[in-house]
Amino acid sequence: MHHLQCILQAQRCLGWGPLASVSWLLLRTCRAHSSFSGTSCPRPEGQQENGVQKDFSSRLATGPTFQHFLRSASVPQEKLSSLDVVDPPPYLTVDELLGRQRKVYLETYGCQMNVNDTEIVWSILQKNGYLRTNNLQEADVILLVTCSIREKAEQTIWSRLHQLKALKKKRLRSRVPLKIGILGCMAERLKEEILHREKMVDILAGPDAYRDLPRLLAFAESGQQAANVLLSLDETYADVMPVQTSPSATSAFVSIMRGCDNMCSYCIVPFTRGRERSRPVASILEEVRKLSEQGLKEVTLLGQNVNSYRDNSEVQFNNAVSTNLSRGFSTNYKTKQGGLRFAHLLDQVSRIDPEMRIRFTSPHPKDFPDEVLQLIHERDNICKQIHLPAQSGSSRVLEAMRRGYSREAYVELIHHIRESIPGVSLSSDFIAGFCGETEEDHLQTVSLLQEVQYNMGFLFAYSMRQKTRAYHRLKDDVLEEVKLRRLEELITVFREEATKANKISMGCTQLVLVEGLSKRSATDLCGRNDGNLKVIFPDVEMEDVTNSGLRVRAQPGDYVLVKITSTSSQTLRGHVLCRTTLKDSAAYCSPE
Predict the structure, then answer these.
(1) Distance between CA atoms of 34 and 16, rounded to whole angstroms?
(2) Among 80, 268, 322, 517, which residue is least crowded by beta carbons within 10 Å?
């Protein structure tokens, strides 16, 4: 065991990659000296050491050598599969690394990145012999892909764990013991605090440690807790093809980069997702092609700062010019040189399938050079919808947030985008009650909502996160009731202005990608327009313009033209005209 302790400590210091070995692997065993942290770890009440555990412990005690880890660290990331079962760690056998048809239940919380991470996790586990189940009661492994962006998101997980504790206690002894894992940002932020607080949690895996899941689950089978929350400087899962979790899906998320370098003072993302690193263009294009071949009609390119994408894998492009930022914007880091940028990727992705819509999220306002805006304007299949997180309408608060722009620069960018992309749909994020926010600052945010008139918005009360710059340098001095009051005021104003903005669509004919039945009516269908607004329309027969004289009913994945007859702050309604194609239709609303 001493060998393993030395290796773990050395690995943390050297910062080896996710498959270099166990990484930050916490093994909570029955002996006080068996944890690398040096703390005592008593056996759970009633648990007896059996022959399997003795055999496992004896193999673990012999431990891998430094040579084993050095061999693993020298293998290039692109050559690694989801698990090297040919040469397993010395303390595990090949059979122990396989799922042996154990059933996995996955729950996803939080952002679109977590949805994509869930598909990556399932791809890795499926290749290692696990089965997927949507029935919680029959699961052998329950994995929660978690969010840590706000306190409320974490409280949701703690509540869910309390529910799962009862399920674990009721598990019949005749069945395989139920294992529960916490994955993603909450695992990364809280680390072993989760294991100490909830003894029923068996494994932790941070966002960069999903390749290690088969090994962590193998350790958990021996009755121990295990965790890998090592952040990586190069992990992008470029060689892992995500497995779509919904067979009837018409759209998919494609992760193009991970992490964030912006270091906004309120944001936990750089500490839970790590530094920015981008997937090679070739691997992204391959994934999009496969999705097109599967018949999917919409792809959303994902990243914490998606439009700061930079592929440095091709040496010949590493001497390219510096990054072009939006006018009046700055960064919190040194200007980056070289690499293939977001405009190049967006251009290549949009050429794969003219009938596939392309979206991207979540961008930062600083990374909208003219070449990106021009490309969005020119390509019919790149949606004319831009998410432009403002966070506040006060220049003073924006400076405290370290956003890299003033209100004036942001508004100028809004005008420039609307001039460059006529009819563009805009959405934004806002935080109510950030550190030091005064009533005047709040009113400036209200006035920004009124000035811009966003089509969609995501508004939240500020929730201070440990490790952030705000936690160390600022004071969370806005009372909770004041935060909530300001949030309600922002939501009210947003809805009023969005209602005005969406009224422009009245009488227009819009292209809608059908998603399926409306949740509120079995006689209606729903889909989304180019601006990503939900559109509801009756499920009736219509003309198919690609087959003259043919009458059809719309199916998920079809493009239809809908004439808008009523609008609200969040939804459009209309009657369907015909089934069509993206190429043959107007790109967006055309008045009649």
Answers:
(1) 22
(2) 322
CA distance 273 to 231: 7
Consecutive sets of 10 residues in the chain, 592 residues long: mean pLDDT of each? 41 38 38 32 41 57 55 46 48 64 94 94 95 94 95 95 92 84 96 91 96 94 91 94 83 96 96 95 97 96 95 72 78 85 96 97 94 96 97 98 97 97 97 98 98 97 96 98 98 98 95 95 96 97 89 95 96 96 70 40
Using the Cα atoms of residue 75, residue 81, residue 83 and residue 87 in order, give the sign of their dihedral: negative
The answer to whether residues 101 and 165 belong to one domain is yes
Q: Are residues 217 and 252 in the same domain?
A: no
Cα-trace Rg, the chain = 26
For residue 279, tell me if it sits in a domain: yes
d(CA 380, CA 367): 22
Of 169, 297, 182, the closest CA to residue 228 belongs to 182
26 falls within a domain: no
**Domain extent at residue 521:** 506-579
Do 251 and 377 reside in the same domain of the chain?
Answer: yes
Task: Verify that 113 and 204 share a domain, yes or no.
Answer: yes
E strand intervals along 329-384 = 340-341, 357-361
Distance between CA 215 and CA 208 in Å, rounded?
Answer: 14
Q: Which residues does 115 contact at the CB level (< 8 Å), separation at least 6?
A: 108, 253
Same domain? 213 vs 273 = no
Q: What are phi and psi of 298, to 5 degrees?
A: -150, 135
Token output for 108: 């996803």
Residue pair 417/426 in contact by the 8 Å Cβ criterion: yes
How many CB atoms within 10 Å of residue 50?
A: 11
Q: Are 274 and 229 in contact (CB under 8 A)?
A: no
Please tell me the total count of domains within the chain: 3
Structure tokens at 377: 């304007």
514, β-bridge pairs: 527
Q: What are phi and psi of 503, to 5 degrees?
A: -65, -20
Instruction: Compute the distance between CA of residue 204 and CA of residue 206 in angstroms, rounded to an integer.
Output: 7
Q: Does 334 share its domain with 290? A: yes
Single-letter amino acid code for the residue at 451: E
Spatial distance between the Cα atoms of 392 and 472, rounded to a whole number of angstroms: 21
Q: Is there a domain that residue 183 lies in? A: yes
User: Is residue 24 included in any domain, yes or no?
Assistant: no
